[in-house]
Amino acid sequence: MSKRIGFIGLGNMGVPMALNLHKAGFYVTVYNRTYEKALPLQEHGLEVAQSLDDAVREKDIVITMLANDEAVEEIIAGDDGILDYIEAPTLLVDMSTVSPDTSCMLADTAKEMGITMLDAPVSGSVNSAETANLVILAGGPKEAFDTLQDVFQAMGKASLYFGENGSGEKAKLVINLLLGMTMQGISESLVLAEKFGLDRNIVLDMIQQTTVATPFFGFKRELLAKEEYPAAFALKHMLKDFGLVLEQAHKNGSVLPATSAAYQSYASAANHGLKDMDMAAVFAELLHASGVKK
Ligand code: NAP
């Protein structure tokens, strides 16, 4: 019998991930805080749960893909949370990006109740989620990681095991530091070009033709050219991740001066109403700060 999966959190990432699990032949029940957002998945043949209880009971695996620490704590360990309903041997897999400390705390709480939990955040945005090309970064008991290979293969092109609980989240912060800094770097280059009066499209062509071009640049190029930022990876989530990076860096003594500076750019962008736009909107913030009006 195919594995039964409860999938909780149907945002930009959760929807394509749940759909890919369904396409791979798993029996998927989805749940979302805002029920209406789950309904379109019914048309694709997924079961939509009206309660967390229904999403969690009698499943082999429960996956969460939620916004932030607050959401994950509430849904897993809050009143009427997953831990009120889940029973061993169901595995609990949190794929959201949250603090490694929160992840460890929740894994410990789950363990006290006999539940095995893994952290398995993902690298790759909506496009990678849609095409099952995510890179999954896992922490937790290795045997559980091994049994999840078929599930991870349905959503991603690779799954990397980093060790004990929390280490998947640590790896995620490492890669997202680079992601946020890359966006900041591209944006600053483009601001300088703008102030020089260079043609933006030719500058974008130049970047594309050189060794600094990356697939990531390719994904964001159109947004930067048009200054339109529909969210694939919302700026508020990048800001959250930079906050988590700096919190961990403060604890472990990493010196990250450029990350601190980039954090300020994303924070200003969020304060200027850009938080729900794509992270590439940090370019809009830097243009504005540089006195370049559209
Ligand atoms: P999103 O579109 O903002 O969706 C967030 C989800 O969390 C929604 O289902 C939302 O439910 C739910 N949620 C938020 N607060 C909640 C609460 N207090 N209680 C219950 N549910 C709550 O986020 P996303 O882009 O899918 O990202 C999800 C996670 O993956 C984040 O941690 C993000 O950092 C990470 N991530 C994102 C990307 C990306 O490119 N988007 C890539 C890699 C990793 P409602 O619908 O009810 O609001």
From TrEMBL:
<dbReference type="Pfam" id="PF03446">
    <property type="entry name" value="NAD_binding_2"/>
</dbReference>
<feature type="active site">
    <location>
        <position position="172"/>
    </location>
</feature>
<dbReference type="InterPro" id="IPR036291">
    <property type="entry name" value="NAD(P)-bd_dom_sf"/>
</dbReference>
<feature type="domain" description="3-hydroxyisobutyrate dehydrogenase-like NAD-binding">
    <location>
        <begin position="166"/>
        <end position="283"/>
    </location>
</feature>
<dbReference type="Pfam" id="PF14833">
    <property type="entry name" value="NAD_binding_11"/>
</dbReference>
<comment type="similarity">
    <text>Belongs to the HIBADH-related family.</text>
</comment>
<dbReference type="InterPro" id="IPR006115">
    <property type="entry name" value="6PGDH_NADP-bd"/>
</dbReference>
<keyword id="KW-0560">Oxidoreductase</keyword>
<dbReference type="InterPro" id="IPR015815">
    <property type="entry name" value="HIBADH-related"/>
</dbReference>
<dbReference type="InterPro" id="IPR008927">
    <property type="entry name" value="6-PGluconate_DH-like_C_sf"/>
</dbReference>
<dbReference type="InterPro" id="IPR013328">
    <property type="entry name" value="6PGD_dom2"/>
</dbReference>
<dbReference type="GO" id="GO:0016054">
    <property type="term" value="P:organic acid catabolic process"/>
</dbReference>
<dbReference type="GO" id="GO:0050661">
    <property type="term" value="F:NADP binding"/>
</dbReference>
<dbReference type="InterPro" id="IPR029154">
    <property type="entry name" value="HIBADH-like_NADP-bd"/>
</dbReference>
<feature type="domain" description="6-phosphogluconate dehydrogenase NADP-binding">
    <location>
        <begin position="4"/>
        <end position="162"/>
    </location>
</feature>
<dbReference type="InterPro" id="IPR051265">
    <property type="entry name" value="HIBADH-related_NP60_sf"/>
</dbReference>
<dbReference type="GO" id="GO:0051287">
    <property type="term" value="F:NAD binding"/>
</dbReference>
<dbReference type="InterPro" id="IPR002204">
    <property type="entry name" value="3-OH-isobutyrate_DH-rel_CS"/>
</dbReference>
<keyword id="KW-0520">NAD</keyword>
<protein>
    <submittedName>
        <fullName>3-hydroxyisobutyrate dehydrogenase</fullName>
    </submittedName>
</protein>
<dbReference type="GO" id="GO:0016491">
    <property type="term" value="F:oxidoreductase activity"/>
</dbReference>
